[in-house]
Specification:
single chain, 288 residues, alpha+beta, D-amino Acid Aminotransferase, Chain A, domain 1, D-amino Acid Aminotransferase, Chain A, domain 2, nine-stranded mixed sheet, 8 helices, 16 strands, 28% strand, binds 3-[O-phosphonopyridoxyl]--amino-benzoic acid
Length: 288
Amino acid sequence: MQIYINGEYFSKEDARISVFDHGLLYGDGVFEGIRIYHKRVFRLERHLQRLYRSARYINLDIGITPEELSAAVLEVCRRNALSDGYIRLIVTRGTGTLGLSPKSCPKPTLIIIVDKLAIYSPEKYENGLKVLTVSTRRNIVDALDPQLKTLNYLNNILASIEAGRSDFDEALMLNSQGFVAEAAADNIFVIRDQRLSTPATYLGALPGITREAILEIAPQIGLETCETHLTLADIYNADECFLTGTAAEVIPVSKLDGRLIGTGKAGPVTKQIIEKFHQMTQAEGTPF
Ligand code: PXG
């Protein structure tokens, strides 16, 4: 494995950053998780756009252009020669002093890791996930906007711990007003009466790259789409429900808080969407 740090390559054992890096000290940074399918990077441009938006939000100058970063990502992919895998792109504020001011950090730390991906078992794609609505609410927009992908994932981690402690597969998070936001690391969709709905991003959902792809696929199979307010009642009473994310792709939800959703197995529309999404990942992507 060859890991990129600030323009240099290191083995997994030698890839190190300073304990004074503000990404570690304060979670001060941004990141992306990107998928490689068949030696092609899926929606690289959209991931880079989101990364630069996240960086702008935290007032971080990445220091190189999106074109240069894109070339670096593709070079790391080439060097690691994985035909299917996962890219983790991290930009931290860089090395500074123990004070939290970014003024002590002259240069950001840019890390690119390419690795194999750990995913849910095939059984979960057939029988669906058991999801728990957790008490941890999604970060509020006026404190840390969940539309950006920052290194500050404690909110999601606390949610994930809560669900895991009760042996659920995933956590569903509400926003501070009680509307459905998203799962701990995935977006949520419901299908009812041939309409596909997902929480609007301003309600606390990340604008997922997979979410975006699913919103493109839906009209192709005759579904209306809607980005809106959803409550728990909308999920409990859905015909079908699934989560989307770079790692999970499209995965059905069979149970939420003890309520069976639909038949409790992957529904027919969800299966169609999974099929279309697979076709998309096979056909698209930036080659390296
Ligand atoms: N919401 C949150 C909070 C996320 O972190 C998504 C939604 C889905 O977005 P994308 O763009 O991936 O469709 C994410 C993405 C991991 C891992 O290591 C997490 C994500 C992506 C890749 C890997 O658990 N989260």
